[in-house]
Amino acid sequence: MSRHDWWGVVLEAPDPRALAHFYSDLLGWKITKEKPDGAAVAPSESVGYIAFQLSDGYVPPVWPSQEDAQRITMHLDFEVVDLQAAVAHALELGAREARYQPQDNVRVMLDPAGHPFCLYMDDDSN
Questions:
Q1: Between β-strands 76-79 and 116-120, what pairing exists: parallel, antiparallel or unpaired?
Q2: What residues pair up with 31 in beta bridges, in sequence order?
Q3: Are 32 and 74 a contacting pair, CB within 8 Å?
Q4: Which of 6, 22, 42, 58 is at a distance of 20 to 30 A from 29, taking alpha carbons?
Q5: Alpha-carbon torsion angle 83, 85, 90, 94, nearest 10
Q6: What's the burial of 68, exposed, middle or buried (CB within 10 Å: 0-12/13-18/19+)?
């Protein structure tokens, strides 16, 4: 690895390898690391990645936030060209659609570990 400008986001998970496979299938990204305690995915020819690390006491966040519950500290956003198709694909892979949806051009989804992520269509393209 000759690059020194890598950057990424790391999510805790009870099964980091399974979550890496979910995001690899969802996004079409390669699994770049896979060990029992962690895994990572990245798009080809990129300096960014999403990594997943083992957390034995993992508690999934609650969306929308609720008092006295694990709060969301971040979420992932993915722009899509066909929102219905992207949601259907995510559901096939094991995601769940959140009950609360704040915008028409965004779907808040929950990955298999309960992390929220948004699939959205750019509403500025009209």
A1: parallel
A2: 41
A3: no
A4: 58
A5: 140
A6: exposed
Classify 121 as helix, strand or coil: coil
Provide φ and ψ at 18, rounded to 5°: -65, -40
Under a CB-based contact definition with an 8 Å cutoff, are residues 70 and 59 in contact? Answer: yes
Count of alpha carbons within 13 angstroms of residue 106, beta-carbon side: 13
Q: What are phi and psi of 116, to 5 degrees?
A: -75, 145
pLDDT at 126: 45
Dist CA 123 CA 39 (whole Å): 33
Return the number of other C-beta atoms located less than 10 Å from residue 23's C-beta: 24
Model pLDDT, residue 2? 62
The answer on pLDDT for 70 being more than 90 is no
> What is the pTM for the complete model shown?
0.88
Q: Stretch 54-69: mean pLDDT, rounded? A: 89
Q: Are the CB atoms for 11 and 52 separated by under 8 Å?
A: yes
- Helices 16-27 & 83-93, crossing angle to 10 degrees? 150
**What are residue 65's phi and psi, to 5 degrees?**
-55, 145
The answer, yes or no, to whether residue 17 has pLDDT greater than 70, is yes
